[in-house]
Specification:
With 64 residues, the chain is mainly α. The chain has one domain (3-63). The protein has 2 helices and no strands.
């Protein structure tokens, strides 16, 4: 019964904690660097996934 709502509650709590940390000058650098690192890792994941998909398509085309 709690499963869908608990997930959204945790997401909201994390967003609220990050918002409070962004307002606090002592934690602003930590949050911005963490967000930047998360974006960089996500971008690298997207690039490698696309390259892997293209390589798999090329192998499949070579076998056909």
């Amino acid at each position: 019964m709690l499963f869908p709502w608990l997930t959204w509650l945790v997401i909201a709590f994390i967003c609220a904690a990050l918002a409070v940390m962004m307002v606090t000058p002592e934690h602003r650098l930590e949050v911005t660097s963490t967000i930047g690192l998360a974006l960089a890792i996500s971008f690298i994941g997207l690039v490698t996934t696309r390259q892997h998909g293209q390589a798999r398509a090329a192998v499949a085309a070579g076998k056909a």
